[in-house]
Fold:
Amino acid sequence: MLPLLAAAVQDASPSIPGAGFVSVCALIFTVASFWWINARQGHLKSWEPHSFAAIVHRSMARLRLPLVLHNTGAKPIVVQDLRLSFPDEPASHLPLLWISSPSRLQPGPEDEPKLPAGFAVSGREAQQLLIEFEAPFSGFVPEPRDYKVQLQARVGHRKGWRTLLTFTLRAANISDPDQYTVYSNATLELTKEDKQRADAALLELLDEQEDLSAPGEGKQRDTSDDDGNTGTNL
Structure:
């Protein structure tokens, strides 16, 4: 919009008197300011979470993340769905799906989870959210290492999944995978004993999963619609 208005002024400037030229520039500034303040479509931004809650065993892998979504534009953005994907992992690792919006990060009996529901992020505002993700079947057990994770979203004004954030999930910090509790997502200097205990627990789960795995898994939720998966502007 702005380049077209500027080109129009440049074409008309030789034939417009000084006062008229100033008036045209003022009109362009007014229209452009109105568009920037009230009608500009922005995109969503987010940042790497400092902590997460996790529980991992052979029948379930669940993550709870504290997220902040910021709308950089003037128009509201409707978020229809969220998921976590693992771009560097085999295709058998399906994305973790949004299953609830809990009331707090630390899991416990006082939780008041809400089922997934679309929401709007108003223009130039930010929302803090707690989102719980779960593997759509029991075949994903994270190893004690770092994972490259993408937070992806479906938004109302775009088609397909859009990558909102790429961050490192430090699964090696999950020291007690059978307990649903909170861990730091920072690089930790674990003691040798803590690291050995965490590695042994997760490797035991992997061994159990291999023993129980068999062909013929039931039909799972379709996650093949990856249109625009590499985009960043939402």
Summary: Helices lie at 2-12, 18-38, 192-212.
